[in-house]
Write a structure and sequence with these properties.
The protein is of the alpha+beta class and 174 residues long. It has 4 helices and 12 strands. Strands 2, 3, 4, 5, 6, 7, 8, 9 and 10 form a 9-stranded mixed sheet that branches. A 3-stranded antiparallel sheet has the order 1-11-12, with no helix packed on it. The structure holds calcium ion. The site of calcium ion has 6 residues, from loops.
Length: 174
């Protein structure tokens, strides 16, 4: 009897799996779907954002965003910066994708591979304290400060929205 129950349960599970994996008619019918952010990512301005709450070094944060299917964010406007701060608890400091590692004093900010012109340095920053503060973080009041890249801070990743069908699958565009 127990075996029979298991068999029936197995059949039902298999059927449900095939509905989604096999791309049956009900999944195909809604394939046009909607653009959405993957679960646990927050949507803003047509993009998806996720905070990494575990402190990481600047380059670890950059790698982690890629692993998560996104890019390390550098805000492109005050509005985007305000949104990023809302993802963090008040006054939390976090890395952004800006550095002057290549050439001291020449700051490069990138949103993925796109150059970002927006800057929001705090008064007197960047200081280059000690001669090697080469990575930028959002500091008090949303202003930026330069820090040693090997400090551990939180960070935020940004990703494209993905197509979401009624089988709860997300397809990230290439
Ligand atoms: Ca520097």
């Amino acid at each position: 009897m127990m075996l029979r129950k298991r068999f029936i349960f197995g059949l039902i599970s298999l059927h449900l799996m095939m509905r989604c994996i096999g791309g049956n008619e009900s999944c195909k019918a809604s394939f046009s779907g909607t653009w959405a952010c993957a679960p646990s990512w927050s949507q803003w301005g047509g993009k998806c954002y996720k905070a990494i709450m575990e402190p990481l070094t600047w380059s670890e944060a950059k790698d982690e965003c890629i692993k998560m299917g996104g890019v390390f964010v550098a805000p492109q406007s005050q509005e985007e910066s305000d949104f990023l701060m809302s993802l963090m608890s008040p006054q939390s400091k976090f890395w952004i994708n800006c550095n002057d590692l290549e050439l001291e004093g020449t700051w490069k900010c990138q949103d993925g591979t796109d150059e970002v012109e927006y800057r929001n340095w705090d008064n007197y920053a960047p200081y280059n304290y000690g001669g090697y503060e080469d990575c930028a973080a959002v500091w008090y009041g949303g202003k930026w400060n330069d820090l040693y890249c090997d400090q551990s801070r939180r960070a935020i990743c940004k990703a494209q929205m993905s197509l979401h069908d009624n089988c709860m699958r997300f397809m990230r565009p290439k």
